Amino acid sequence: MRTIEEHRKTIAELVAGALATRRVVVRRVSEGVSGEVLADDVVAPLDLPPFANSQMDGYAVVASDLEGGAARLAVGRRIPAGHVPAPLTPGTAAPIMTGAALPDGADAVVQIERADPPRFQDEGGASTVSLPGPVPVGQFVRAVGSDVRRGDTLLRAGTVLRGPHYGILASSGVESVRVLDAPVVLLVSTGSELAAEPGPLGGAAIHDANGASLRVALEEADARVIVRRVADDGDALLRLARLGVEADSADLVVTTGGVSEGAYEVVRETFAPRGVEFGSVAMQPGGPQGWGVLDLGGRSVPVVAFPGNPVSALISFEMFLREPLQRAAGRPVQDRDRVAILSEGADSPPGKHQIRRGRLDPAGRVVFVGGPGSHLLHSYALATHLVHLPVGISRVEAGDEVVVWPLDD
Ligand SMILES: Nc1nc2c(c(=O)[nH]1)N[C@H]1C(S)=C(S)[C@@H](COP(=O)(O)OP(=O)(O)OC[C@H]3O[C@@H](n4cnc5c(N)ncnc54)[C@H](O)[C@@H]3O)O[C@H]1N2
Ligand code: MOO
């Protein structure tokens, strides 16, 4: 039986290999999406600020006019933001607004509230103002290039783009960037019991839970997902897989069901002769697993085959696929382990790493939600944490420390 660590490594290598070379797409900055990953370094095309400007509403001055202390200066023409000002004549102070271009000749700004009078005067009115001094050269002046220098690296390849990144790209006049394209995952639910359509169930049919739950989980890990369903029909499964790779450029095939010991294990029977391995991982739920590379339409595409039980499929994703996909997407991968205290005891198969569903009570202690059965999807939906009971443990008691993974991180 494989250990969880062995299987994690296998799947991580499989995914990393398949997604090592990622397609890139051009994204308009005005249509940027939070979380996309920059494919190339972006060089700053402009100095920012592009011109020296005022950090305050006040008066643009020549600092040397105030070096002897407070002085009364002639009031020059107002400088609103967005206007190119006339040069400043020494001995004058020009009313200037925050963000307005500093006139040639000016080298400092005095805030309006430090002036006498402390309010802008009507243009054409009183023609002098008293300003305190001395003031340092550069006071309240935002120098050219003080944020970004033209030619510097504005953003590095691999940056996960969020609001500030799109802001600085837009400020720099960059209209579009190249970002990593999402990997495409073909997700196939298998089993003749799966109803073809939503709606009333007939006979021994059930609705497909895994296509719904894993699509969302894969999308959380930045994949683009094509969801398909197939009965226990190996030829149909192969056709679907080939089509997904050829027509939809799938980078990875994920299946659920058909991997264990039954008489109709469509995934195992179809893929094992083509080189995909099947075996058992010492964990519950999620014991039976398949993994390997399929030659599909001349391309080698990795296959990850999860068990069909809905809880097993989801926990397999959490244990084996979420992190490699996040890594491949350039996303930081956080350690999910938290330590919590149990509020109640439980048994666990000592030869397996059992993963139970739980939530925290008002005192912050772990309460199990539902039993260990891998069909108990409702309990999973009501849980907030996965609770780890590692190999070697046959019993835990109230008060014991356990590692939990929050499900809503
Ligand atoms: N004799 C043995 N039987 C089983 C073993 C074993 O070792 N020996 N392992 C059990 C374990 S553990 C698991 S997990 C399952 C894995 O089975 P498969 O991956 O082959 O999956 P299926 O048999 O197709 O389905 C199992 C179960 O899940 C339901 N299912 C499947 N797909 C979906 C879906 N998309 N949505 C909702 N429910 C689904 C299916 O109806 C079955 O009830 O095998 C055990 N058996
Ligand atoms: O290992 Mo299966 O996944 O328990 O139910």
TrEMBL record:
Pathway: Cofactor biosynthesis; molybdopterin biosynthesis. The keyword Metal-binding applies. SMART domains: MoCF_biosynth. It catalyses: adenylyl-molybdopterin + molybdate = Mo-molybdopterin + AMP + H(+). Its EC number is 2.10.1.1. Its cofactor is Mg(2+). InterPro entries: MoaB/Mog-like_dom_sf, MoaB/Mog_dom, MoeA-like, MoeA_C_domain_IV, MoeA_C_domain_IV_sf, MoeA_linker/N, MoeA_linker/N_sf. Keywords: Magnesium, Metal-binding, Molybdenum, Molybdenum cofactor biosynthesis, Transferase. Residues 186-327 form the MoaB/Mog domain. Pfam families: MoCF_biosynth (PF00994), MoeA_C (PF03454), MoeA_N (PF03453). It is an enzyme of class 2 (transferase). Catalyzes the insertion of molybdate into adenylated molybdopterin with the concomitant release of AMP. Belongs to the MoeA family. NCBIfam families: Glp_gephyrin. This is Molybdopterin molybdenumtransferase.
